[in-house]
Amino acid sequence: MSAGGASAVVIGASGGIGAALRDAIADEGAHAVVHALSRSGETPIDIEDEASVAAAAARIAAGPPPALVIVATGLLHDGDRLPEKSYRELDGAWLAKTMAVNAVGPALVAKHLLPLMPKQGRTVFAVLSARIGSISDNRLGGWYGYRMAKAALNQLVRTLSIEEKRRNDRSIVVGLHPGTVDTALSKPFQGNVRPGTLFTPDRAASQLLDVLDGLKVPDSGKLFDFEGNEVAP
Question: Structure pTM?
């Protein structure tokens, strides 16, 4: 994924997948700078606070333009708050929090970082989404807040791709489904994972970067899994 003198940005770089993506991109050496941003990192960002996102964007704007941006943030559970099994468990505050982290936050990142990306040449803006956000693939029900937020995120990707194409006709805006990765996010649910389908963060990062390398402009606006297969909306 050669980008010459351009930079790369990983939002959520302190998480399992985010940290692995940061390291893999740096190891490739294809970008002049790799900005690794997280809530607790040396370069802080809080995607729930637009002023924080804007400040991070201003710091990035002082260097080479970003040709690759990956938003690797997400919220599935918090403490004893687990995904809802029934509508009887729905809670407005938790739904709003889930939406804020999984959909609104990436939207704010797009608002402030897409204008920094080059207007010519191949650029990639990717967000970590999930197959569970697919409406047509929903056969089990449950997990209301996470499903809703990821469906909203997938719609964001589609809408951004349309507008961004007008600014740069070689831009690619996509969602990525990394599969089940051995991180804190998936920890409570790993007992249900089929053998051989629980990935280490390093393997997940390698697979996702391979998928991004293989994408073409017509792929913009879509969701792809870790094998490069399109996930139905």
Answer: 0.93
